[in-house]
Design a protein that fits this description.
The complex is a heterodimer.
Chain A lengths: L1 H14 L2 H13 L4 H21 L5 H19 L12 E6 L7 H12 L3 E4 L6 H11 L3 E5 L7 H12 L7 E5 L5 H7 L3 E2 L3 H13 L1
Parallel strand pairs in A: 1-2, 1-3, 3-4, 4-5
Helix pairs in contact in A: 1-2, 1-3, 1-4, 2-3, 2-4, 3-4, 4-5, 5-9, 6-7
Chain B lengths: L4 E2 L8 H17 L2 E3 L2 H9 L3 E3 L3 E3 L2 H10 L4 E4 L5 E5 L12 E4 L5 E3 L6 E3 L2 H13 L5 E3 L12 H12 L4 E3 L4 H15 L8 E5 L6 E2 L1 H12 L4 E8 L8 H22 L5 E11 L4 E3 L2 H17 L17 H16 L4 E5 L2 H4 L1 E2 L1 H19 L1 E2 L7 H7 L9 H10 L11 H6 L5 H15 L6 H15 L1
Helix pairs in contact in B: 1-8, 3-8, 4-5, 5-6, 5-17, 6-17, 8-9, 9-10, 10-12, 12-16
The chains are: A alpha/beta, B alpha/beta.
The complex binds cobalamin.
Amino acid sequence: MKTEIFEKAMESILKGDAALAEETAKMGLGEGIDPIELINKGFIPGINKVGDLFGMGTLFLPELIQAANAMQGATDIINSAIPENSAQARGRVVIGTVAGDVHDIGKTIVVSLFKANGFEIKDLGRDVSVETFLKEADLFNADIIGTSALLTTTMPEQKKLEDALIEAGLKGKFKTMVGGAPVTRRWAKRIGADAFAENAGDGVRLARELLAK
Amino acid sequence: MSMLSVTPSLNLLNKDQIERIHHDSLEILATTGIRVDSPKAVALFKKFSCRVENKSQVFPEKELIEWAIKKAPSSVDIYSRTGQKSFTLGPGITKEQQNQTRFGIGVTNLHYQDPITDKTTPFTLDHMEIATRLGDALEEFDVISTPGIARDLPPESADLHAGLAMMANTKKPLVLLVSESNCFEPLLEMFETLHGELNKKPFVIPYFNPITPLVINQETSDKIMATAIRGMPFIYNNYGMSGATAPITPGATLTLLNAELLAGILFSQIVKEKTPVIAGSLPAGFDMKKMMSLYTPHTMLINLGCAEMMHHYGIPHSGTSGSGPGWGPDLLAGNCFWMNHLTSIMGKVGLCPFVGGNFDSMAFSPGAVVYANEVIRMSRIFAAGFSIDNKDVPLDEIKSIGSAGNFLMAPSTGKRFREFRLESPIWESLTLDEWQEKEMPKSGKILRKYTDDLIKKALPPDDHDEIMEKGRLFITGRF
Ligand code: B12
């Protein structure tokens, strides 16, 4: 029965079937499966597979987003069955487009891919000030702050964030990751960001590396 | 137009279809509404008795929209920097001028492709000068739209230097994109200082976007207010990526984008009645694997549909320019230019302002611009059509030559062959033998060399130094 439920969980995510994912999550809990085991052996292999297939160019973005949604639905149900302090540590990321910048599609895609790869992610939207990044990262207990800047004129906000982190003595606490059309690896290095991501997939890979450090 | 002149045109929408799109657009505005981020702008909408919910969601009604469409000028004259009328945009103009699509080079590219090698480097102020002079030298281009971002300058003042370089290196009208919002008003002031009033004979057209779907952001409303108060025209273009920021189907994207444009036209008129607004969409698709916009036959159809809607409303139009997929001045770029330029000219497109950016408008390619100049030239000839009147169909001449004769000696051939010849300024015609004898030259290489020569030869206008000096003085006084 257990293996059947794990397989069903995986299938629900691969298919991006939110209703099936939620039903399976409830069924698994109802059968008395340990919530952490249910997520680790059922849903996470599903979402990992989705991430891989997307990375290889087999899945399209809308399929990825449907899978991420299904994952979210199942995770919410399972999380509510896990006692607070035994919740699994997964990468926690806050992300947003910097102040003065309204370009948010790239950021939104990054959010989907991070979700699809099992990260806990808070999307702060666009036109986000340095103060908001700091406040929200703290509230969310984030491991990583991701910023997107699509304009040469808003890239300096990414530097402002680094400066603010140093000033507040938080540079070690939150890792930073930068992206966006005009942003380069050189820029990331120059301002002291921990990582530069060329695209969303790159971002996931680098986030894992940062967390492993 | 006489029944004896054959002028091809492209028409998409019939009257009922236009009505339907209009109706659905109004429905979107009345039920979903539009989010307006500027409290000052919301207050204006309220003053014109629009329903507002949650402080910023504005629901404009049919009557008000239709009032705005009537108030907005149906044509706008655009001038050269030296005060000559360059062209008129809008359906409210004379028959002869109708469907004269105008083209510009652009826009806000972050990189510059070397004309010979295609290698990209960050766009600089020098590239701004080169690009502007190139656009100035190429006959088919009517305007220069901020070709790139001067990345060798500090971002807080780069827009000012870029604007000055554009102004000093051409007399053609300018379409202005400003990335640093704090530079916008100073830039207009600089143009006023160097040129005088910008509203009487406008040679600068600022360019703004709402955020699709259905948001008029703070920066855009501030810029519109600053422009309208000055009595200047501006371009209001929405950029929608089907499946990402706009619905996946062409019909729904067209309708949604049209609704946004109506809201923008309304906003322009409540800020100041009779403000000339040039409206239109830059519809794009979205590559669901590569995560970038793309141009397809469907996006070109939406572009033409939008142009027809604006034509129907009597609003001057500006649309998409077919730049994006190229890797250089190559077949990929050429494909999209043809699809865009020919259909734009044959449709009701007013302005195609942004020709020349490769890689999804990231890298300015001088060679692509030169190639596009040829595409525009030929498309214009195509759209001009031909005549079947007595002069053009000389039956007596055909009779006198008779069966099995030839027309090499015919009087009309002698008189008119120059009118109908098509020669390229770039490539010579070669027979297969000649091509082999010349060791199989590559047409792309010849285009690159031609472009490079053109850039080296292109001179600035006579008043270049004077403008640069005055402009620099203005900028150093400010920053
Ligand atoms: C769509 C678009 C718009 C839309 C934005 C709509 C929206 N909701 O986002 C609109 C029309 C509103 C817009 C407005 C403007 N734009 Co614009 N825009 C673009 C365009 C064409 C595509 C951007 C995009 O969505 N790409 C698709 C996404 C998926 O890619 P992406 O954002 O790069 O993200 C990917 C990676 O970079 C990476 N990534 C990005 N961020 C992050 C963050 C993290 C943490 C990670 C891990 C990864 C990551 O992963 C993503 C997925 O693979 C670009 C050109 C371009 N090719 O980039 C210009 C561009 C960015 N815009 C530009 C300009 C000039 C403007 C305007 C100033 C124009 C104007 N009207 O005056 C305004 C500025 C408004 C403002 N204050 O922000 C210039 C930049 C100039 C500069 N100074 O740097 C560009 C390059 C213009 C161009 N040549 O076309 N724009």
